[in-house]
Amino acid sequence: MSMFGMFGGRAPTSAEKVAAVENELKVVAEMHTRMVKICSLKCIDKTYREGELSKGEAVCLDRCSAKFFEAHAKISDHLQQQSAQQGGGFGV
Q1: Dihedral, CA atoms, 23, 28, 31, 35, nearest 10 degrees?
Q2: What pLDDT was estimated at residue 57?
Q3: What distance in Å separates the CA atoms of residue 41 and residue 74, rounded to the nearest whole number?
Q4: What gap in Å lies between CA 50 and CA 31, rounded to an integer?
Q5: Is the pTM of this model over 0.70?
Q6: Looking at the domain assignment, is residue 90 inside a domain?
Q7: Residue 82: exposed, middle, or buried by beta-carbon count in 10 A (0-12, 13-18, 19+)?
Q8: Which of 46, 51, 65, 89 lies most in the core, judged by the most C-beta atoms within 10 Å?
Q9: Does residue 91 form part of some domain?
Q10: Backbone angles phi, psi at 11, to 5 degrees
Q11: What is the CATH number of the domain that holds 61?
Q12: What pLDDT does residue 13 have?
């Protein structure tokens, strides 16, 4: 679905485009914050025995973030499909 679907078939104004981009950036920033919190709790040793990440921690963080992004993409696709079926949408 195009951006025009978000605005009832009409061309969005500059202010609406800026608001849409700001909202998307906010969503991405919130997702990043959640991912860092979740993956850090899961992967990083709480005793902080070393100044650098261990190989195991680095691999865990890499896998955790990849799974997080994959899940986010699948959920976003599903929500966009549902929204399109209901006649609305935020797809670009």
Answers
A1: -160
A2: 95
A3: 23
A4: 28
A5: no
A6: no
A7: exposed
A8: 89
A9: no
A10: -70, 135
A11: 1.10.287.810
A12: 83
